[in-house]
Design a protein that fits this description.
Helices cover about 60% and strands about 10% of the residues. By secondary structure, it is α/β, with parallel strands linked by helices.
Length: about 190
């Protein structure tokens, strides 16, 4: 079974995807890291690289090709990607959402814990700045995916399961996601 995750920044998708992969003993792929690696290779931070991607689709194409090849190589894995639901239509598609403010609080907490992200992005030192940065990032992503593929990555109708994590703990989110996944495995 291929399980694809997408969701709002700060919704817990990476944490939950890791937990699901561990529980099922599946490999986990994180397309965000591939984008970060490509940005670093180009000597750009993530925001600069995303602006470059708006003008040129070569980076998206590399990630898309990687996405489309994965199911040919493996039958069972967890993947985090904005477009896996589109490029791997037979995957079990999960979307995690969160309110702007709660997502920003979680991101700030993660930044304070991990100083590496601070080096990559600028002025992410307050909830207000994070909300503004994440809105700009969402807008760039939405515009790019609409332009290149004609898809709306945040439309919950594209997913088999959508969950608002705003008022849930990570453990509660994991339990609800696993309950859904297990219901599909058992059918």
């Amino acid at each position: 079974m291929i399980i694809s995750f997408n969701g709002d920044h700060g919704s817990g998708k990476s944490t939950v995807a890791k937990m699901v992969a561990e529980k099922l003993s599946y490999p986990r792929y994180y397309m965000g890291q591939i984008f970060r690696d490509l940005a670093e290779k180009e000597g750009l931070n993530l925001a600069e690289f995303q602006n470059l991607c708006k003008k040129n689709s070569w980076a998206d194409k590399q990630v898309d090709d990687y996405l489309m090849e994965l199911p040919k190589k493996e039958k069972n894995f967890v993947i985090e990607s904005r477009t896996a639901w589109h490029f791997i239509p037979d995957s079990l598609k999960i979307y995690l959402k969160v309110s702007e403010k709660e997502g920003a609080k979680r991101i700030l907490k993660e930044i304070e814990k991990n100083s590496l992200r601070n080096k990559e992005d600028f002025n992410l030192n307050s909830i207000e700045n994070i909300i503004a940065s994440e809105k700009a990032r969402k807008d760039r992503d939405d515009e790019r995916y609409q332009k290149y593929y004609g898809i709306k990555i945040r439309n919950e109708a594209n997913y088999d399961f959508a969950l608002d994590t705003t008022k849930l703990t990570v453990e509660e989110v994991f339990k609800k996601v696993m309950t859904f996944i297990e219901s599909k495995i058992n059918n």
